[in-house]
Amino acid sequence: MKEKVLISLTILTILSILILPQENKLGESYKLIYIHVPVTVIMISSLLLFPILQFKIQEEQAKSLSVSILAFSAFHITISSMFMLLTWGGLAFTEIRFIFSITIFFFALTHALLSYIDLRLAKLYSFLIYIITPYFYIQISKAEFQLHPTFVEMPAYFYIPYLVSFPLMLMIYGVIYERIKKQTQTYLISDKARVFD
To answer: Is the residue at 1 inside a domain?
Structure first.
């Protein structure tokens, strides 16, 4: 059932994106926002909720969520890079939003590694997101020049693909989490078995 829904959402997302005309300023490259925006929202929301949730979930869930966030942060920076390459023909490593994407990726990478080395330290480390996010939000709001558009004026029907792309990205996030969780559970069981041996 889940596979059928995932396939259906994928097809609907692709079709809805292909059917839409080009955007006046950004051309076809703007269509990446239908993937980029959901990925960004899911990633940032997960990072902000994780420090609170980690005290209410089990060890394998915390580790799996950490790696899932890392996967989406890597996906996020890839989509951002593609957008910049298609729109402006290169990467602007000094652009504040791109710096934020890189920072989040390395933050997620460090947290994922820590969660398998010392989960208690990883839990403390996760609270740094409450400093990183507001800092970059302030910097973005102050920036006079941004290659990454804050808002693109589009007709109302241009927002229709979000109705399928958001659920699609959420499902993909869930699939990644479940698969990592199974692998983590297997690892923890085998690790405990070695201890008892």
So the answer is: no
